[in-house]
Amino acid sequence: MDRYRVTEPRAEQVATAQGAVSSALNTATDPTAVVDAVGKRTDDPVTDGGVGTLTAVFAIRRAVFVGEQGVDPELEWDDAETAATHVLGVADGRAVGTARIRFVDDERAKAERLAVRQSDRGQGYGRRLMRAVETCATNSGANRCRVHAQRRVAEFYRSLGYRTVGDEFAEAGIPHVAMETELPAERDE
């Protein structure tokens, strides 16, 4: 799986990508078709490290969180889009998954919005995306990484070395738990 990053995109890039996803929603027959519909509606390839990459990121998130999990679309895109680094996983020329990372402070990063297309789950893409996020955090000086894990996938994060650090809470109407791990001093991409 190849990985493409967009670090702290400009507001115009975010708006353009979100507009492409919204437009594709009008032609997609089901939520997961949004990802493929977006690819046909933009001249920017998913590998451009800019609007094309962001469009694929937002399309995957929209399909998974809004389409599959019923998250309110108003909650899916937030004010943190321009303050985050977005990571897109591409396999065989197809966008398969995404995650984003933000820095809580100089020593802690927060991994967010990990999503893998339904058709590509079970192939290790989520694990590889999390490792890419952790590498980004480590290389930027963070020594810890936190996630707000949906309760149903907390075991996945435990398998990556995360431990629960708080009580269960609801986020977007879904049960979550805060988890955290220590990061190595160095990590190769």
Helicity range of the residues?
Answer: 25-40%
**Principal-axes shape call:** globular
- Total number of helical segments? 6
From the alpha-carbon coordinates, what is the Rg to the nearest angstrom? 16 Å
Q: How much beta, percentage-wise?
A: 25-35%
Major beta-sheet overview: 8 strands, mixed
Explain what this protein looks like in three dimensions.
The protein has 189 residues and is an alpha+beta fold. The chain is built from 6 helices and 8 strands, in the order βααααβββαβαβββ. Strands 1, 2, 3, 4, 5, 6, 7 and 8 form an 8-stranded mixed beta sheet that branches. Helix 5 links the parallel strand 4 and strand 5.
Keywords:
189 residues; alpha+beta; eight-stranded mixed β-sheet; 8 strands; 35% helix; 28% strand
Q: What is the fold's blueprint, element by element?
A:
Elements: E1 2-7, H1 11-25, H2 33-41, H3 51-68, H4 73-76, E2 85-91, E3 94-103, E4 108-116, H5 125-139, E5 144-150, H6 154-159, E6 163-164, E7 169-171, E8 174-182
Parallel strand pairs: 4-5
Antiparallel strand pairs: 1-2, 2-3, 3-4, 5-8, 6-8, 7-8
Summarize the structure.
This protein is α+β, with helices and mostly antiparallel strands and about 190 residues long.
